[in-house]
Amino acid sequence: MELTAVPATQFSSVQLTDILNACFEAYLVPVTQSVEGFVQRFSAEGMSLVDSRVWLAGDEPAAIAIVARRGSAARLAAFALRPAWRGKGLGRKLMQELLMLLQQQGIETVFLEVIRDNHAAVALYQSLGFTRRYGLCGYLSTELLPPVPGVLQLYPTLSLLRRAIEESNSQLPWLLDPLTFATLPCQVVTLEHRAFAVLTTAGSRPVLSFLWVEPAARRQGLARELLMALAQQFPGIGTSVTVPETFTPLFAAAGYTPLSLQQYENDDGSGRREVGLARSVRWTAKKQHGPSISLSFPASYPFVMAKRGMRCVKRNCWLFCKIRPIFSIRIT
């Protein structure tokens, strides 16, 4: 049976939550969202209902993709099929459809996270052209070290986020981008007004979600002292699995232990491609009189070029291009 893609705008928050939970049944990691948790989490991450999709088999939901969007960048916030539809090669087909749709909507770069031990998903995304950007870890405070001097003080949340956004310049993992915390229930604490931590407070206990030290105060041990102070004031505090693994030595020095669950953040590589032509089809005009002309077009354009008397001389292995068309002409 063919699956029909339907925009997520056609469903209520209650329906989307139920569909998400059903599609993640028997998943590698248990996933159960409440309606409130669904709305709060995905709204903070930038959920675009216009770009998100539910695939139906008749009237029954078979798969779901939650897409977040910030400008011309998108993130696959969730993608899953119901158990009965897994193992049939549909994941690749649906992802190709979704990525082509995002390209048509002006998306230039797509990000996603994948659990490291989910080998099938890792292989799928690699085959679609996604490459590893960060290894992501989570950390839990397990060792109380000697008290550190200084007292944690509250600090205005938006004041910190404005400062951090200006410096981050979209170089952090999507889930650590300061934009994520603008709509989440959270509080900011500071040590000496030079080191800052964002604690999200939606659950029963605070979660350390973001750490920022003023540029002029870095490499002075303030981040470690702040982590130790947080562990003393909030015993057992931890992070989500969103922290680049390069920070493991910092957390270890402050008495934090890595969680067993780890992820990769991947992107489709479009931001690193020289003039955006790595996934293209090269076409050459049939030489009749005068010089031939070679053009590089996105791989979605072969039907256009074939109609204009051109033939494909080299086709990249990727099936589609998730960037806006950029053309080049070479006289030979």
TrEMBL record:
Keywords in alphabetical order: Acyltransferase, Transferase
One Pfam assignment: Acetyltransf_1
N-acetyltransferase domain location: 3-149, 142-282
Recorded GO MF terms: acyltransferase activity, transferring groups other than amino-acyl groups
InterPro entries: Acyl_CoA_acyltransferase, GNAT_dom, YpeA/RimI_acetyltransf
CDD domains xrefs: NAT_SF
Name the record gives this protein: N-acetyltransferase GCN5
